[in-house]
Amino acid sequence: MRQIKISENEAGQRFDKLLLKYLNKSSKGFVYKMLRKKNITLNGKKASGNEQLQAGDEVKLFLCEETIAKFSQAATYQSQYDIDVVYEDKDILVLNKAVGVLSQKAQKEDVSMNEMAIAYLLDTNQITQESLRSFRPSICNRLDRNTSGLIVIGKTLKGTQEMSKLFKERTLHKYYLCVVKGRIAKERRIQGYLSKTTENRVAIYPDERKGSSFIETQYAPLFTGEEYTVLSVHLITGKTHQIRAHLASEGFPIIGDYKYGDAKVNAYFKETYGLRSQCLHAYCLQIPGKEELKAVPPQIFQTIIGDVTNGNMEFQRASRLHTRRVYQPDKRTL
User: Fold this and answer.
1) Strands 148-154 and 280-286: what pairing?
2) Which end of the chain has fewer beta carbons closer than 10 Å to its terminal beta carbon, N or C?
3) CATH 3.10.290.10 region(s) of the chain?
């Protein structure tokens, strides 16, 4: 027999949802059968599974350990990246994502920011393997694989729900740093409609079309040169590839963007700097009730900014944006 006491992270969900997380290799039929036979009880009583759990509730599984082990299987992964901790409190963790790292898994074998954050929380004894059976910390915002910068992970249910709400309601402000082809002399706020044309590509239109979504992007030049402009971009709506496609549609493609950018410009920066991804970095988050958070852009990005601005841009002091704390997770069972 195994006993589970419901924590704050597990409260508020249906009883059957928790059981299906805990016994993640079992079928719904098996779980409901165990409920009917009172092999699984809630607060010492028979349960149907649709009960809303409260903190402090007691769940008992009158199952042998072999059965529990059979229906509750963990996975392993090998971490390949450092994580850069920008901010942390009891409910959230904010990391500076590197270029080339997924926000969430796309394939079973992938290693993403989500898995690395969980490894960090395990190694710092903030969560346990047992607690992961019923609640897994998760990211609250996504960045493209080749976009670097600030990503938020909810460490607790409260943190996940609050941050997801802020992102959804757009009550926090997200700012990106990028280098684009062309001269931009003044701040602008642009609107349009974004529509997916293929699984991995979008198009921008001036008017609404079937299946399209309204988008709004604000940008301000931090430095304007003869050929390139360094922009601070305020992402007002948050759609797939919005900044990249929206700026390109205005005639200002981001350098290093092989999907929406200028082929000749990209070839130059690849040959000169070894740049293989878009110069786009989520550098600032303004979260209500918290300090303004900023993240250091990748070194290649800093080098390019220094060269296109001849080193006379204030943002070159990027290394002082936050205190860098790097953690390297080991092989973990999650």
Assistant:
1) parallel
2) N
3) 2-70
Q: ∠289-295-296 over CA atoms, to 5°? A: 160
* Global pTM value: 0.83
Q: How far apart are the first and last CA of the chain?
A: 23
The pLDDT tens digits for 52-109 are 999 999 999 999 988 988 888 765 545 555 789 999 999 999 999 999 999 988 777 7
Least confident of 153-157, 236-240, 257-261, 310-314: 310-314
Structurally, at CATH architecture level, domain 2-70 sits in Roll (3.10)
Q: Which of 191, 243, 188 is nearest to 213 (CA)?
A: 191
Class of domain 173-318: alpha beta
CATH 3.30.2350.10 residue window(s) in the chain: 76-170+324-333, 173-318
Structure token pair of residue 114: 């989500």
The reply to whether CATH 3.30.930.10 applies to domain 76-170+324-333 is no
